[in-house]
Design brief:
single chain, OB fold (Dihydrolipoamide Acetyltransferase, E2P), 5-stranded mixed β-barrel, 9 helices, 47% helix
């Protein structure tokens, strides 16, 4: 079998082997073994490395797919020479690995991953466009995986967004208007007060049960994050894949930070753990 692949990560196995996690054009994500690849004269050693785009030939072994031949197509050399770009490339591969499970072909995801690494490779490392390339990848990958947020109507009341303050709800998956946010906040406070009274009346709960209860309350009442009109407009352009407008768009440091914080907030909710974002 043969496919075009991006090497997402690698780990050592035994004394001379490695397991590589790949995202491929024809098969989606899967693992392949590089037998004897840690030996000095291993023929696959140069091609099978993290952040490489390779043409891979492989066979099905007893427990793993086994790489038989590798041709390096793109090493993304500029990306690997500059630390900010290298960190961005590693982050993109890590998010791909953590969000995608199972072997399922998806050419949209393949194109997004490959084009993002290509773009990071040619961008200057000190430009805000590097962080925008990462944001573009995150939000479009989430959309392809079924997590596209609602950015045109309040996710709760379904009214079209107009004036006032806006909030982003990871739990609901979109924008919440100020009226619905205030209503939700009041309900949450009422529920917290009720839960507090319940706990005081049941002080004999053991420590593990109390811990589970607090965690459940936290997850069910996760706070929304305030979002500016500019951030909403930029996210709309990202998900519409309006690359020409995005290239002309000037992002200031405040907007750049807000978009980064939104990505961290949403990804942490989806991955069910605090997520590091660059």
């Amino acid at each position: 079998m043969k496919t075009n692949a991006i090497v997402l990560k690698e780990k050592e196995l035994g004394e001379t082997d490695k397991i590589f996690t790949l995202y491929t054009k024809n098969f989606g994500k899967f693992e392949v073994m590089g037998k004897g690849i840690r030996k000095i004269k291993a023929k696959l050693k140069f091609g099978l490395q993290g952040l490489n785009n390779v043409s891979l030939e492989f066979i099905r072994g007893k427990n793993f797919f086994i790489a038989t031949d590798v041709f390096l197509k793109n090493g993304f050399w500029s990306l690997k020479r500059e630390i900010r770009k290298y960190r961005a490339g590693l982050y993109v591969c890590d998010i791909t690995d953590r969000l995608i499970t199972g072997e399922e072909k998806d050419e949209e995801i393949w194109d997004l991953l490959f084009e993002t690494l290509e773009r990071i490779d040619i961008l200057p490392s000190v430009n805000y466009q590097l962080s925008m390339a990462v944001r573009y990848f995150e939000w479009n990958l989430l959309s392809f995986l079924g997590f596209e947020p609602e950015l045109y109507h309040c996710i709760i009341c379904q009214n079209k967004l107009s004036g006032g303050k806006f909030y982003f709800s990871a739990k609901e998956g979109g924008i919440v208007c100020n009226k619905c946010q205030m209503s939700s906040r009041a309900k949450r406070r009422k529920a917290e007060d009720k839960a507090g009274s319940h706990r005081s009346l049941n002080a004999d709960l053991n420590e593990s049960e109390a811990g589970r209860e607090i965690k459940t309350n936290y997850l069910s009442s996760a706070k929304c994050q305030k979002i500016s009109r500019d951030a909403i407009k930029i996210l709309r352009l990202i998900i519409l894949k309006d690359k020409n407008t995005l290239k002309r768009l000037k992002i200031n440091p405040v907007q750049e930070r807000e978009l980064k914080d939104l990505s961290k907030y949403y990804l942490s909710w989806i991955l069910e753990e605090e997520n590091f974002v660059i």
